[in-house]
């Protein structure tokens, strides 16, 4: 962990650790336009735009423009990095990869990863 960007990691965790932003992230696992995010979450446009800007700054979302609409989706790879850091801190790290076609996370490892022993 000595090569880790602690400042960047802390910024990422601060961005995630806000209830409204966490609600937005949960709503945009699949791609949605801003108006759809507003409908799903019930967060009014001014506040929603402010929180989406923070998520963009933290590189937690992928954006796509189509005409006047902007679509947002969670950046699964960025969140995977946060997850791996927390797993390392908790001592539960396993090898993972993201399936680019389904955006699903697959855990690697062998037989030794099926159980955790507590003493």
UniProtKB/TrEMBL annotation:
<dbReference type="GO" id="GO:0003677">
    <property type="term" value="F:DNA binding"/>
</dbReference>
<dbReference type="GO" id="GO:0003700">
    <property type="term" value="F:DNA-binding transcription factor activity"/>
</dbReference>
<protein>
    <submittedName>
        <fullName>Winged helix-turn-helix transcriptional regulator</fullName>
    </submittedName>
</protein>
<dbReference type="InterPro" id="IPR036388">
    <property type="entry name" value="WH-like_DNA-bd_sf"/>
</dbReference>
<keyword id="KW-0238">DNA-binding</keyword>
<keyword id="KW-0805">Transcription regulation</keyword>
<feature type="domain" description="HTH arsR-type">
    <location>
        <begin position="1"/>
        <end position="97"/>
    </location>
</feature>
<keyword id="KW-0804">Transcription</keyword>
<dbReference type="InterPro" id="IPR051011">
    <property type="entry name" value="Metal_resp_trans_reg"/>
</dbReference>
<dbReference type="InterPro" id="IPR036390">
    <property type="entry name" value="WH_DNA-bd_sf"/>
</dbReference>
<dbReference type="InterPro" id="IPR001845">
    <property type="entry name" value="HTH_ArsR_DNA-bd_dom"/>
</dbReference>
<dbReference type="Pfam" id="PF01022">
    <property type="entry name" value="HTH_5"/>
</dbReference>
<dbReference type="InterPro" id="IPR011991">
    <property type="entry name" value="ArsR-like_HTH"/>
</dbReference>
């Amino acid at each position: 962990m000595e090569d880790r960007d602690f400042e960047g990691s802390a910024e990422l965790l601060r961005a995630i650790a806000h209830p409204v932003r966490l609600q937005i992230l949960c709503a945009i696992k699949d791609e949605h336009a801003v108006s759809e995010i507003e409908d799903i979450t019930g967060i009014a446009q001014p506040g929603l735009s402010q929180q989406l800007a923070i998520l963009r700054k933290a590189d937690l979302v992928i954006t796509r423009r189509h005409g006047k609409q902007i679509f947002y989706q969670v950046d699964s790879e960025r969140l995977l990095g946060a997850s791996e850091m927390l797993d390392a801190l908790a001592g539960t790290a396993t090898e993972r990869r993201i399936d680019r076609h389904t955006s699903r996370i697959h855990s690697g490892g062998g037989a030794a990863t099926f159980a955790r022993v507590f003493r």
